[in-house]
Amino acid sequence: MKEPVLAKPPLLAEGIVTVDKMGEIPLPEQIYRAIRDAVRSAVLRPGTKLPSTRRLAAVLDVSRNTVNAAYGLLLAEGIVSVRPGSAPRITEDLPPEGASVSLSGSPAAPLLSRRGETMAANLRGRGWGHRFGAFQPGAPALDCFPYEEWARCLRRAARLERGADLLYRNFAGVPELQKQLAAHLAVERGVHAEPEQILITSSMQSSLTLVSQALADAGDSAWLEEPGYVGARTAFHMAGLSIHPLPVDGEGADIAKMPAAAAAPRLIYVTPSHQFPLGARMPLARRLALLEAARTGGAVILEDDYDSEFLFSGRPVAALFGLAEEGQVIYLSTFSKSLLPGMRVAYCVVPPALVEPLAQAVRNFGCAANVQAQAALASFMDSGGYRKHLKNIRQIYQARGSLLVETLKERLGNSIEVDRPTGNVQLALTFRQPRDDVALALEMHERGFAVSPLSSYYIGSEKRSGLVVGFAGATEKQIAQGVEALGDLLANKRAG
Amino acid sequence: MKEPVLAKPPLLAEGIVTVDKMGEIPLPEQIYRAIRDAVRSAVLRPGTKLPSTRRLAAVLDVSRNTVNAAYGLLLAEGIVSVRPGSAPRITEDLPPEGASVSLSGSPAAPLLSRRGETMAANLRGRGWGHRFGAFQPGAPALDCFPYEEWARCLRRAARLERGADLLYRNFAGVPELQKQLAAHLAVERGVHAEPEQILITSSMQSSLTLVSQALADAGDSAWLEEPGYVGARTAFHMAGLSIHPLPVDGEGADIAKMPAAAAAPRLIYVTPSHQFPLGARMPLARRLALLEAARTGGAVILEDDYDSEFLFSGRPVAALFGLAEEGQVIYLSTFSKSLLPGMRVAYCVVPPALVEPLAQAVRNFGCAANVQAQAALASFMDSGGYRKHLKNIRQIYQARGSLLVETLKERLGNSIEVDRPTGNVQLALTFRQPRDDVALALEMHERGFAVSPLSSYYIGSEKRSGLVVGFAGATEKQIAQGVEALGDLLANKRAG
What we know:
The structure is a homodimer.
Chain A: H1 27-40, H2 53-60, H3 64-76, E1 80-81, E2 89-90, H4 114-119, H5 147-159, H6 175-189, E3 198-201, H7 204-215, E4 221-226, H8 230-238, E5 242-249, E6 252-253, E7 267-270, H9 284-297, E8 300-304, H10 320-323, E9 329-334, E10 346-349, H11 352-365, H12 371-382, H13 385-412, E11 416-417, E12 426-431, H14 437-446, E13 452-453, E14 466-470, H15 476-492
Parallel strand pairs in A: 4-5, 4-7, 7-8, 8-9
Antiparallel strand pairs in A: 1-2, 3-10, 5-6, 9-10, 11-12, 12-14, 13-14
Protein name (chains A, B): PLP-dependent aminotransferase family protein
Domain HTH gntR-type (chains A, B): 25-93
Organism (chains A, B): Roseibium aggregatum
C-alpha cells in the first residue's frame, strides 16, 4: 500500500494558495483554508516549510498582517508548528494523508460534521493544554488537598440511600448544596439568590457551553476579554458566535475602549474580581460602566468569578451579579480551583425566569454533576471544612506565588516584568523585549515546565508576549529549577 | 400593573390560525406555530379549549391527521394539556403572558436564544419526567444498591493523590476504568476496542448530545426507533436533525420497513439487545441487514446497549459494534441502570480515528465524569463487586418484573396485553382497546405511580396506547396497589 515518496510541490506553486480580493470570505481565512485543504488533500506534505510572511504577502499581493493572521489560524489548529530558530512548517504528526479524520476500512467513512470540527478544535493550539508538569496554569496544588477529610465526606454521603436525587430528580443540583452555596455567595460575594437559582453543572466549561448556546444564536456577537480565558473562547467558538476582543488594562476590561464599530454583543464575558490571565481587579466605577453599557445594549454579562474565594489579601470586589438589575448577569464559578478539577462540580447563578428552562437544558445536555460528590461538598461546606481549606490554600499559594516572583525578579529582573500575585493559582509575566513566547513555552515544556505562552490568550493580532505560570503546586525546588531554565533560554537563545 | 381581564377571542376567530398550503413549512407545523405564537403573544389565554380536530380540520380544509399532528406538537411542548374526559386546553400554568421566558425588571430582557428554546424543550411533555413515585421508568432499585461497599470504594479512591488525572489530564476517562471496561466489553459483548477508544462521559445524555452534534450537522437526517428513547430524540432535536421514525416490531427495529422515500440518514439510533421501550431482541439476520443498509447508505449507527448487562435469561445478542466494520458503529452505554443515575458515569466506544477529536470535544463541551467516581468504579469492577451486583439485581429485578406481570394478567388480563420482561428495569403494557394513555398516566401520577404513556415514545401519528411501567424498585405492596389503581381507572372511566 505504501506509495513511493513523490516530490510534492512547494507551497508557492501556482494555484495552491490563491485569494479572491472581492470575495466575501476575509483574506486571512482564504489563505488559511487554502493551506488547510492542501494539507488535507495531501498536496502539501507534513514537514513542508511555510514561506516567510513577507514572501507570501508579496506573492499574493496582500499585507503581511493578513498572512500573519492566516498563519495564526493554522498554528491554533495545529496544522502548522513552530520550532525555535526555524521557519514554521506543516506539522509532522498530523493524521495520515488524505483526510484528517477518515476511517480506514469503511467505504462510508464517518467524518466529523462541520460542527464536529468546531467541537474538536483545540484553540489552545495543537498539544497545548495536554502537557503536564510543574507550573501548569489553572491547576490547584495537589499536595494541599485534604484527601482524608474529603474521602470521609464522600463516604458518608455515599452511604446514604438518598431517594430520588440518585434517580432522575434535581438534575440541576442537590438541594443541600444549592442551599450552602446560596448562603456562601450572599455572605462572601454579595450575590443574593434563591437556592434553586444556583444550577450545579459538571464544570465551568459545561456552564459556559450551556449558557452561550442557550442565550445566543449562531452569528450573534460576543465580547471576550483580550487577553482572556480560552475556555470561554472555546464555548463561544462552538456556539458559532462572532467573537470580539474587549480591551483589558491594569483595571481589567474597559468597555469604554471598545471600538464603536464593534457589533452590539449578545454576551460579554468578564472576570472582574481577578482578570484572567493578567490579574487586575476591576474598580467599582468601571464595573458600573460595564453594567450600564450592557443594559443599554441589551447584552447579558457572563461574570466568571472563578477565584474570588481565595484572593490573598483584602476583600474581593463586589460581584457584578449583586450590582446588576435582575437578568443582566449570569454568575459563574467552579470548585476546580478551590478544590480539584477532577471533582467536576461547578455552578452558575441565573435569573429566576431562566431557572426552569436552563434546568431542563442541563438535563437535555447531560451535564449534571455527580450526586454523591455534590452531597459530600454540601457537608464539607456545612462543617466549616471548606472555609478552613480556603484559608489554608490562600496562605500556601501566597507564599509560593511570592517566592516565584522574588526568584524571577532576582534572576531575570532585567528581561521580564512581573507583579506579586494578588490571588489565584497562576500569574503572567511579560518580556521587556519582544520574544517568541510560543517557542519559549515549547522549550520550557521540553524541560518539564508546563507554562503557557501569553500570546495564546489573545484573539487579535496585537498580542503581548509573555508566559503564564502556575505556581499553586510549585515546590521550592521546582521554582528554583524552572526560573533557572527560563533564564538559560532567555540568555542563550533569541527565540523566534 | 394588573389589567382588567378582557375577553379573548376563541381559537377559531378569523386570522388566529391560517395555513398556507403552497408554503414550504409542513401544514402541522404551520398550525402548531400559529397557536404557539398566539399563546405567547397572549392572544390566546391559558385554559382556552382547543376545537376538536374534526372541527379545526373542517375550518382550515386540511385532514384530521394534520390537525392531530399539530396538537401532538403542542402537547409535547406543554403548550396544550389534556385532562381525562375533557377537550385539550391551553395549559394553565404557562409562564405569564407576553413571552414564555422574559425577565421582569430589566429593560433588555435576556430571552433564550432560538437554540436555547430547543435546548430547554421537554419532549416528554411538560411535567413528564419530573414526576416521581413508584413505577418510574428507567429507574434502578434504590434498595438493591450496595451503598456500604460503594462508599468504601469511593473513600479508597478519594484518599489517593492521583496526580494529574485530578487536574486536566485524561478528560476522556481515567485509564484504569477504560481498561476495566475494555476487558469487560470484550468478554461480555464481543466489543473489542483499545482502552483509549472508550470515552467516559457524565451521562448517556451527554454522550448522545456530543456524538449527534459531532457527527451530524443541522438539517441532516437521523432515524430513530418508533417507539424509541426520548433521550435520543432530545439529543437529535437539539442537534437540529430531521428525525424519521424507524419501524419496530417483535424483532426490534426493521430497516426493511423504512419508507423508501425517507432521506438517507446520517445517524441511526437503535437498541438491538433490548428494544426500548418494547423489549424485543434483534435477531442476527436483522442486525446484519441493518449494518449493510447503513454501510451502503453511509450512515453511522448509534448502538445504545444500555441494559445488556442485566438481561434475565440467556446471553445478550452480540453487539453491532463487534459485527461491524470499523467506523460504522458507535457503541453507547451507561452505569445509570446497572448502578445509579446519580453517579453520572457513562461511556461510548468510538473508532480509533475519532478518539482524538471526540476526546477534545469532551473537554470543550465540559461533559467529563467525576474522577474519583471513575476510579472507584474501576476498583469495584476489578474486585468483582460489580459482577456480583449485576447478578444480584438480575435476580431481584426478574422476580419483581414477574410478580408485576402476573398481577397485571390476573387482575387486568381482559383489558391489557403484557409479556414477562426479559430484562431491564421497566416493561410496556398495551391496551386491548384504544385508551387515552396520557390521561391514564396522569391519573396514575395523581395516585403516586409515575408510569409513562407509551404514546409519548412515538414521533409519528400512529401510536400504540399503553403504559411504560418501571418495576425494578417496586415492592410487593406497590405492585398490588398500583395494579389495583390501574384496574379502577380502567373500569370506572373510559378515559379520553
